[in-house]
Each structure stands twice: as C-alpha cells, then as structure tokens.
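Handout, section B. The chain below has 225 residues.
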Amino acid sequence: LNCWCFSTKLCRSKCLFKQITTTNRKGPCQASFSFPINPIPTPTRAIESNMNTTMADDPRANVETIITSLTGIVITIISASVSIIASALVIYIILRSMKGLRKSVYHRIMFGMNAADILQSTAIAFTTLPMPKDMIYSFKGVVIGNHTSCQVQGFFVVFGCFMGMMYNAALSIYYLCSINYNMTDQQFRKCLEPCLHVIAIFGGFVVAVSLGLADRYPPSPSTKA
C-alpha cells in the first residue's frame, strides 16, 4: 500500500512539472517560470513647511524702519534731487568757464566726480519704483518694478558710488602732487591722469557688472539665509 501511494504521488508530481514546463517554455530544453513582481513603492518626498508659506508670512516682512517708511522715502527723494541739481550746476560752471575741460586737470577730475554723483543720485531718487512687486519688504512707497529693473538700479548705484570714490581719490592725488611735489598740470596729465580715469570709470564698471552677474542686487534676502 505504501509503495502504491508513493508511486501515485510521484506520477502526479511528474504530470504537474510537465504541465508547467509546457506552458512556460521559451525554446527547446529551456523553461522559464514567471513570477509576478510587485513594483516597489517609491517613498513620497517630504514637503518642507516653509515651502507652503508665502512671502507675506515671512517675519522679515514686518520689520519697519525709517528706511521703509514714507518719511524716509520722501527724504531720500529730496536729498537725491538736490544732489543731482548741485552736481549738474557744477558741471555747467565747468563747461562755461574759460579753461573748460581741455586746459584744466582739476576741471576734468571734478567733472568726473559730479557725473558719477548724478548717476548714483538718479538711481537712488527712484527709491522703491524699480523694486519687484513680490519682495518681502513692506515699503510704503510705490513699487512697480521687477527683478531686472532692480538689477539696473543696483548697477547704477554701485557704478556711481565706486566711480565717485575713485575720483575723490584722484583729486587727493592731484593736490598731493601739485602742492607737495610741485608737479605741473602738464606733467600730471602725462603721467598720472589717464590711469586715474581708467581706474575710476573702467574699475567702477567692472565692479558693478561683477556684482550683477553674481546676483548681489537682490530685492529680498536670499532663501538660503
């Protein structure tokens, strides 16, 4: 009886194996068994809480100082306008003088200094107008700009500031050479003046462009801060 049961089970196993190999055969003497593979579920990416917060919810947006107030904006506009008018008046006097720009090193240095002041003061006089509408600061002035206009304003502020500082240094060098070393205008014009103009104009341009390319004129603090 035991031998009969064993032979019966062995026969059934052979039949089952034959059925499987016939169904899943790919070629002669080659059988493949397909097993269902469940896809591994990918973990959901955690969403940071600060991504859902809007700019208005930023605590830095609620900081109010004299700079963001309407009084500070009006003072900035008035002082920048007075500076523009005064610098333009100096340039007008230089151009109308007998020596003009050609015959006087001092006039050329003063012309560059006041031209730089006009560039910087004009950019400052626009105050909040070029600022982007989506910035976090709550300025009381009118904001109608975007990121590009903010970059342009920052460029002219930095360019005029650096150019003005370099011409101030050039004026100090001019006084040092003319008073202490008794250098004439012709000697100063040939030896030092071209270098001072290049440093003031080209140097200011390079600094302003470099800061713009590095995105250092942000209207709002960086999100990495």
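Note. Residues 1-11, 20-37, 39-54 have pLDDT under 50 and may be disordered. Compare this with the example in section A.
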